[in-house]
Amino acid sequence: MMALTQDELLAEFEGMTLIQLSEFVKAFEDKFDVTAAAAVAAAPAGPAAAAEAVEEQDEFDVILTGAGEKKIQVIKVVRELTSLGLKEAKDLVDGAPKPVVEKVAKEAAEKAAEALKAAGASVEVK
User: What is the C-alpha separation between 2 and 65, in angstroms, rounded?
Assistant: First the structure.
């Protein structure tokens, strides 16, 4: 078995949806009996970490804080904004506050927030 480099692993994670990444973290925690918070804290802070911190200033998260009265409409918008299936989108809406889209440009975050608000949801952009 050939080991993947750190860059190859990061490229794989970059292509994953939020739900897939969340499931991976949970499986990783179970397999190695650790928590992701501890793993992040133990990661060395080098040039890559500094570059990532600078990059994050240009990235925004859209957090669904509540579905409002038109929950079905909000679920439809969540599905449009993500690659989630119906059940996953419903679970995300039911579990609010939850991030809908993460690490996107300001324009994309504003468009996503507007679409969710138009459907009746309460949203926060961070």
Answer: 43
Relative orientation angle of helices 106-118 and 71-81, to the nearest 10 degrees = 160
Alpha helix positions (H), the chain: 6-14, 18-32, 36-42, 47-56, 71-81, 86-94, 106-118
* Torsion 36-39-41-45 (CA) sign: negative
Residue in the structure block whose two tokens are 């299936």 = 85
- pLDDT tens for 3-41 read 778 888 788 877 878 788 778 778 877 888 776 554 444
The answer to whether residues 96 and 64 touch, using CB atoms and an 8 Å cutoff, is yes
Q: Which is nearest to 19 in space by CA: 79, 76, 109, 74?
A: 79
Question: What is the pTM (predicted TM-score) of this model?
Answer: 0.52
Give backbone dihedrals phi and psi of 121, rounded to 5 degrees, phi first: -85, 155
Q: Indicate the length of the chain as a whole number.
A: 126
Spatial CA neighbour of 25 closest among 35, 10, 11: 35
Instruction: Please state the separation of Cα 43 from the chain's center in Å.
Output: 20
